[in-house]
Amino acid sequence: MNVVFAVKQYVSKMIEDSGPGMKVLLMDKETTGIVSMVYTQSEILQKEVYLFERIDSQNREIMKHLKAICFLRPTKENVDYLIQELRRPKYSIYFIYFSNVISKSDVKSLAEADEQEVVAEVQEFYGDYIAVNPHLFSLNILGCCQGRNWDPAQLSRTTQGLTALLLSLKKCPMIRYQLSSESAKRLAECVKQVITKEYELFEFRRTEVPPLLLILDRCDDAITPLLNQWTYQAMVHELLGINNNRIDLSRVPGISKDLREVVLSAENDEFYANNMYLNFAEIGSNIKTLMEDFQKKKPKEQQKLESIADMKAFVENYPQFKKMSGTVSKHVTVVGELSRLVSERNLLEVSEVEQELACQNDHSSALQNVKRLLRNPKVTECDAARLVMLYALHYERHSSNSLPGLVMDLRNRGVSEKYRKLVSAVVEYGGKRVRGSDLFSPKDAVAITKQFLKGLKGVENVYTQHQPFLHETLDHLIKGKLKENLYPYLGPSTLRDRPQDIVVFIIGGVTYEEALTAYNLNRTTPGVRIVLGGTAVHNTKSFLEEVLASGLHGRSKESSQVTARSASRR
Amino acid sequence: MSKGKLKKFCKKVVGFILQRKSLVQKAKKAKNRLLKREGDDRAESGTQGYESFSYGGVDPYMWEPQELGAVRSHLSDFKKHRAARIDHYVVEVNKLIIRLEKLTAFDRTNTESAKIRAIEKSVVPWVNDQDVPFCPDCGNKFSIRNRRHHCRLCGSIMCKKCMELISLPFANKLTSASKDSLSTHTSPSQSPNSVHGSRRGSISSVSSVSSVLDEKDDDRIRCCTHCKDTLLKREQQIDEKEHTPDIVKLYEKLRLCMEKVDQKAPEYIRMAASLNAGETTYSLEHAGDLRIEVQKVYELIDALSKKILTLGLNQDPPPHPNTLRLQRMIRYSATLFVQEKLLGLMSLPTREQFEELKKKRKQEMERKRILERQAALESQRRLKERQNDLVSRAANGEVVSLRGGPAPLRKAEGWLPLSGGQGQSEDSDPLLQQIHNITSFIRQARAAGRVDEVHTLQENLRQLQDEYDQQQTEKAIELSRRQAEEEDLQREQLQMLREREWEREREQFQAVSLHTRTRSLDFREIRPFQLEPGREPRTHLAYALDLGSSAVQSSAAPETPSPVSALEPVRVWSGPPAFGQDPLPQSTVPQQTSLNPFEDEDPSSPAADGSASPLASEPASGPSACILKEYNPFEEEEEEAVAGNPFTTPDSPAPNPFDEEDEHPYPRPSSPPVPGNPFEEATCTNPFEMDSDSGPEREEAIEEELLLQQIDNIKAYIFDAKQCGRLDEVELLTENLRELKRTLAKQKGTN
C-alpha cells in the first residue's frame, strides 16, 4: 500500500530490465514529475541513467551508444512522437513502458513504425500518479470540475490515475462514494467500468476482506483548505507552496543562489522525514538541536589539526559534515522564512481566529474577532478574505449573519474584487446547500459528548484544534459505522467486515492536514491501511483557484482564463 | 561551509526562536500551550491526531514490503505486427542489394555500353517508355529534352532531375557488408576474402582512371530516389554497427574499474575493520597492498571520467549540447562513486597501533572467555540440581512427553531420536538432550511430511530452548557467590586426585562413564560428603567429577563455542600423559611443555578460572591485583595457559604474554612483583593506562603511511569540494593539506 514504493519499484524495474550500459530516460511532461517524486538524480545516475529527455523535445541528438527507456503516458501525442522516434531511431535500443492501458491499435501502429527493430520491450507499468508520501498521492489536476460536473478530459485523466493506483497496489476494490456529489458518483462509475473492462488485469489474489475505494468530494469540506497550518509539511505548502516536492524560495529576501529552489523529500531527507508531521514549535527546537550537532561536526578553522588523532577525526567526520551542511542550510532557510512570514503576516493571531471560526459556535465573539483582524494592517488581503470566507461558510444560515457588512469591510480595506467575489464563490462551492453532512454541529450523541468534554478540558493548542471532517468519515468507516444512505456502495455487494485496505480519493483535492489525519489513523489503528489521494494537494491559494476554475457564479469567461493560467503554471 | 555563513545560520535560528517566543507572548492564550509543547511531552494525548501516539497501527513508512505492481506486456503483440512489416522491408533491401551486386559484378569500364545495358536489363526488367508520359516524382512531361531514365535497381522511370546515382565504392560497401556479415558467421577473424580484395583493388584503380576521363555515367549506377533512400538507410545501419565512439570505449573501461572497486572495497573494509579491532586474521601488509590497489583504481576512475568529460571539447564543430551533458553526467556519477566509496575506505592502523590493538583485543578475549566459562559452568550445575528427576527418564527417550504436556506423540507413532544421537551425544544436560531429540524428531517428521507435527515439535523445541536459556542466565548470576565456598573443597580433592595413577583409572573411568554419563553430574552434588569414603569409590568419584566438569564444557559448547570450552574436553579425555603430545600449539608455552604434576590440575581449571574471573573481569585495578596475588600458583599458571592460549589467536606472532612483554617498547611504570604474572599483565594493558602511556609517543611518531593516507583523503575532499563549487571549503582543506605535507616533510627529515 506504499504508493511511493510502488512507483519506485516500477522505475527500478524498467532500469534493471534494460541491462548494463549508458541509458537515457525518455519521458513526457507528466511522467517526468512522476519519476522525480520517487528518485533523486544521483540515485538514478548510479543506475547508469545519464540523460533525461522529453519525448517532445526536438533537438535531441542521435546517440546510438545509448539505450533508451521510454516511460510515457499513453496519450495520442505521445504515441505520435514515439512513432516518429522509431522511424528514425536516435538510440540503439528502446524499452517502452506506458504508464497506463494502451490500445491495441496504438501498439500496432508503433510496431509498424519500428522497421529497424530497435524496440526490445513494450509494457504497461501503472505508475500514473504523483506519489507524494507513502500514503498520499495526487494527480496534479487543478480545476477538475466545471460547475458541479466533471470536465470530461479531467474525468478521464482521474479515472486513469485512480485505476493505475489500484493496479500498482494490486487492489481490486469495492467502491463507495459520497451520495451528495454527482461527480463522486460519476467517477465511481467510470472506475468500475475500467475494472470491468480490464477484468483480467484486476485479477489479484483475493484477500479476506476486500479493499475499499471511497470517493469523496471537496465540496463537503471547504473549511480545511482555508485554514492556516502549523505542522511542517502543511505549513511549508501553505506559506511557500510545494510543487512535486520542490519549494520555490526565490522570493525569500537575501536568498543565496543555491537555495533558490530546494527539494523536501522524506525519502532522502532524514530531518524532514522525522519532522514533517511535527508542529512548528517542535521544529524550532529540533532545528536548534540539528544546528548544535552540526556545529560539533564542523571542522574548526582556527584550530589547526595538530595531531594525527585530530586529523583522523576530521577525516572521519567530514562526510557526515558535508551531508549535514546541505540539510542544515536548507531547513534553516525554510524554517527561517516560515517564521518571517508568520510574524510579517501576523499569522498566529489570524490562525487563532480561523480555528475559532472552524471549531466553535460563538457567533458574536467570532464576528468581533474577524472585524478586529480586518482592521489590522498586518493581515494580508488573502488572509482577510479567507477569514470572511470561513465566517460565511460557518454562519451562512445564522440569524444574525452579517456577511454583507464584512464584505463591505473587505472593500473598504482595499481587498481586490477577485477575493471579494471568491467569498460568495466559496459559499456556493461548499455551502450548506451542497454539503451532504454537517460540518459544524455534531449530530450523534457520542460526538456531542466529545465536544462537551473538549470544552471542559480546554483546548490543547488553539492553533490546531481543527480536525478535518475526513477524520470523522474515516473513523466511522474503519469502525464500520459509515452510513450507507450517505455513502452508498456502487453495485449490489457490500462489505460485511470492517475494511482493512482503504483508498480514499477526494475530487477537488486533498490537503496536507488531511494527509496527517490519515497518517495518524494509520499509525493508531491496527490492521488498517489508508491511502489518501486527490486531484491535487491544495493549499489555500490553489484551493481558491480550484473554486475559481469551477466557474461557479456563472463567470465562465473569467474561469476559463484561470484554468488556462493554472494549467500553464503546472 | 564558511564560518561566516554558519554564523548567519546561527543568528537566523536564534533570531527565529526569539522572535517565535515574543510572538507567542503576544498571543497570550497560546503561550503556555505552545511552550509546553516545545518540551518532549508528545505523548500527552490531546484532541489532535498527531498527539495521540498509541502505537496501535503502523507508520506508512513501515508498511511491509510489497511486490511489484501489476504489469502487462504487449511485446508479443508488438513483435507480431512488426514481424509482418519487417519481413517486407528486409526482402526489399535484400532484393536491391542482390541486384546491385549483379550490376557491379563485371568490369564496367572495359565493357561496351550496349553490353552493359543488356546486363542491366537482365537484372531487372525496365518499365516501358510509353507507359510513363510524366515523371512520377516531379510530374514533368517527358520530351526530347527531358529524357526518360531508368532506375537500374527497380526498373522504374524518372527524369534526370529526379535521378540519383550510386557510385561503385558505395555499392561495394553495401554488397561487401552483407557478404562480410555472412562470412563472419563462419569465422569472425577472417578478413575480407581474396576475391573481394582484388575486386576492390580494381575498382580503386579504375576510379582513378575514370576521374581523369571526366564524369562518365557508366561507372555509376542510376537509380530512383526510393531505392537510393533504402540503400542509404542500410548504409547508416552498417556504419553504426561497425563504429564504436570513443566515449563508449572509455565508458566500458570506467565501468570495469567500478566493478573492480565494488569487488575489492568490501574485502578491504573487512580487512581494515578486522585489523582495527586488533584481530590477526589478515596481515597488515596485505591490507596495505590492497588499499593501494583500490586507490589506484580510484585514480584510474578519476582519470577516465575526466577524459570522458573533455572528450571532443576541442573539436571544431563543438559537440551537441546533449553529448556534453552526457559527458558531464558520467563524470558527475563517477565523482559520486569515488566520493561514496573512498570515504567509506577506512584507514589502517599503523604497525605500532596494530600491536597495541592486538594486545588489547587479546586481553578482552581472555576476559570474555573466562566469563563465558564461568557462566556455563555455573548454569550447568544449577540445571542438574533442578532436573535430577528428569535425568533418568531422559535416558529412556521419553523426554518429549515430559516437557510441558503439549507433546502429542505416543510412543508407537512418535519419532525416534536419531540413532546414535543419544549415544554419541555428550550432553549430560537433560534439557540439551531433549533439544537434540526433538530436533531429530522434527527432521524425521519433516521427511515424513507431517506438517502439523513439525509445528508442534517446533513449538516444543522453542519452549525447551527458552527454558534452557533462562536457566543458563539464572545460574550465571549465582555462580560468583557460590564459587568461593566450593573452591577450598575442590582444591583438597584435586590434591588427592593428583596422586592417582592415571592410565589405569582411565580405563575404569571410561567403562563407568558409559553407564553413568547422564548421572555423573549428580555425584558432584554430593561430592562434599563423599570425600570421606574409602579409596576406591573416591577415585571413581574423582572421575565422575572429571566427567562432570568436562560435560559442562561440552554442553556449553553449542551455546558459547569459545575455543576454550572446545579445548577442555580434549584435555580431559586424553588425560595428562597425552598433554605433551597435544597437537595444539600450546606446547610452545614453556610452562606447559613439561609434564609437571601441576598439569594434573587441569580438570579443575574451569572452577579455578571461574573463581578468579569475577575479579579479573573488573577493570584490572590495584585492589584486585592484590587479591589475586593471594591465589596459589596453580591457579596463576592456569590463567597463563589461558592467556597464552594460541587457540584464540592462531596467527598471532606473540601469543605468549612474556614475549609481548619483551617487545613492549616502553618500560612499564609499575614493574610487577611476580614477573609474568598474568594479572599484572592485565593491569598494564589496561586500556586506560595504555592510553596515557603510549599516547604522547604515538603522536610523535606519526607514521608516514598514515600521513600519506590522510593526504589522499584530503585530496579527495578537495576534489569533491571543487566539484561542488564550495570554495571556502576548498580553502580550508587546502590549508589542512599543506599542514599535512609539512608534517610529512618534517617526518622525513627526522628519519
From TrEMBL, chain A:
Keyword set, alphabetical order: Endosome, Golgi apparatus, Membrane, Phosphoprotein, Protein transport, Transport
Subcellular location: Endosome membrane; Golgi apparatus membrane
GO biological process per UniProt: protein transport; vesicle-mediated transport
Record's signal peptide: none
Membrane topology: Peripheral membrane protein
Main location: membrane
Listed InterPro entries: Sec-1-like_dom1, Sec-1-like_dom3a, Sec1-like, Sec1-like_dom2, Sec1-like_sf
GO CC field: endosome membrane; Golgi membrane
Gene3D superfamilies cross-referenced by the UniProt entry: 1.25.40.60, 3.40.50.1910, 3.40.50.2060, Syntaxin Binding Protein 1, Chain A, domain 2
Protein task: May play a role in vesicle-mediated protein trafficking from the Golgi stack through the trans-Golgi network.
PANTHER family: VESICLE PROTEIN SORTING-ASSOCIATED (PTHR11679)
Entry similarity comment: Belongs to the STXBP/unc-18/SEC1 family.
UniProt-recorded name of the protein: Vacuolar protein sorting-associated protein 45
Organism, scientific name: Suricata suricatta
